[in-house]
Structures are given as structure tokens and as C-alpha cells.
Design brief:
It comes from Natronobacterium lacisalsi AJ5. The chain has 84 residues and is α+β, with helices and mostly antiparallel strands. The protein has helices at residues 12-24, 40-46, and strands at residues 2-6, 58-64, 67-73, 77-83. It has one domain (2-83).
């Protein structure tokens, strides 16, 4: 199963946990902590706007709770959650 979500960089970690919880039909608190898979602060910071005001672009992939998470940033961040 694949789910893609768009939104702002500040909500990326919450969207990842919520998407996986939805796919698992579980409460988000029942999932393993996201920080076991990735540093949430670093994930948010790596794609935040630079001091000069330019938007960073890139892609980060990591496994979380049996899913492959992909976070891509260009104009808007896109989170993709796929079954492993």
C-alpha cells in the first residue's frame, strides 16, 4: 500500500506517524517511537528554509514500523509511505 501526503516541513514527523497508524488501523501511540528510525529534529531541520530564505530540496528514505518512508522536498514536502 502506498500513501502520499503533502504539507509543510514542520508537520512531517506527525504526518508520518499518522499515516502509518492509519494504514495499520492503530492508535499512533501504539506505534514504535519515530526516533527509533530517524531523528525527528534532524528530519525537520534538514529541509527547513535556510537563513538566506532559500528552500532546500532533497530526499530522505528510511524504514519505520514495517514501511518504507520517503520524504521529498522541493516546493512542498511530500511524504510517501509504502509497505516493505
Amino acid at each position: 500500500m502506498r500513501q502520499s501526503l503533502e504539507g509543510d516541513a514542520d508537520g512531517v514527523c506527525e504526518r508520518i506517524v499518522t499515516a502509518v497508524a492509519t494504514l495499520e488501523d492503530a492508535d499512533p501511540t501504539e506505534l514504535p517511537p519515530l526516533f527509533d528510525a530517524v531523528d525527528p529534529d534532524a528530519l525537520t531541520a534538514v529541509f527547513s528554509t535556510t537563513e538566506s530564505g532559500t528552500t532546500r530540496t532533497g530526499r530522505v528514505e528510511f524504514p519505520y514500523a514495517g514501511y518504507r518512508i520517503t520524504v521529498e522536498f522541493d516546493d512542498e514536502p511530500v511524504v510517501t509511505v509504502e509497505s516493505e
